[in-house]
Write a structure and sequence with these properties.
By secondary structure, the protein is an alpha+beta fold. Helices cover 48% and strands 18% of the residues. The radius of gyration is 19 Å and the shape is elongated.
């Protein structure tokens, strides 16, 4: 993908996450300087739509990001280094008081936050109300599906362990269906943190228009998900 095409794609997704307005060439031209006219931006958007990054609800309307566009956007975020200070202190708080940490993260990110300790078999959740308030669902059944997902998260974490036991690269982001959710309206950011023999999982669950940048930077600011090795090993 050309640099200009990539810039149009990533900025279009970022703008949509921020304001929820359909993406148009005129809107992008007013907000960003790509060095080309609206007609050329429109051609780039058409090309991206043909590649599956955008879709239209009406032929004459603006475009919306697809799951493929969100995944590209998140992959770009994960590839960049996050500059977050005091990560040792934050990780220590998380390990010593998981419930308090989950509550703080939910308040900061405005999404559903989950903390899970597989060894002790405990899970804390905070922010379900915030998640439900920001969902862009169209039917009651879709809302019920999200609540069901929340009720089954702990069971799914306990039963389906391979994705977090064997994973090495953290955080991980799922757009749409994930190992712990089935609703197509959700995105999940997951991270694993280890201290000695103890493992803690942290999940940030929000609508597809959630603030991925804030969550990814915060998760990267905590300690990395690899177990410490003994000095004698």
């Amino acid at each position: 993908m050309k640099d200009r095409t990539r810039a149009i794609l990533e900025l279009a997704v970022r703008d949509f996450i921020k304001n929820g307005k359909p993406i148009t060439s005129e809107y992008l031209y007013e907000l960003h300087d790509f060095g080309i006219k609206p007609a050329m931006i429109r051609w780039e958007l058409n090309s991206l739509a043909e590649a599956g990054f955008f879709y239209q609800e009406h032929p004459s309307g603006g475009r919306f990001p697809s799951d493929k566009a969100y995944r590209h956007f998140v992959d770009a975020l994960l590839a960049r280094e996050a500059a977050v200070e005091e990560k040792e202190q934050k990780c220590e708080l998380f390990m010593n008081d998981m419930k308090s940490m989950v509550q703080q993260m939910s308040e900061q990110l405005k999404v559903l936050s989950i903390g899970y300790d597989p060894k002790q078999g405990t899970m804390y959740g905070s922010g379900l109300r915030e998640l439900l308030e920001h969902l862009e669902t169209e039917t009651k059944d879709e809302l019920v599906d999200v609540v069901k997902d929340f009720e089954q998260i702990e069971e799914r974490l306990a039963k389906k362990r391979d994705w977090w036991e064997e994973g090495e690269l953290w955080p991980r982001v799922f757009v749409g269906e994930s190992p712990v959710t089935r609703s197509d309206h959700l995105s999940v950011i997951a991270a694993r943190y280890d201290e000695g023999e103890r493992t803690i999982l942290l999940l940030s669950i929000g609508p597809k228009r959630m603030d991925y940048q804030q969550s990814v930077d915060l998760f990267k600011g905590l300690k990395s998900g690899k177990k410490k090795k003994n000095k004698n090993e």
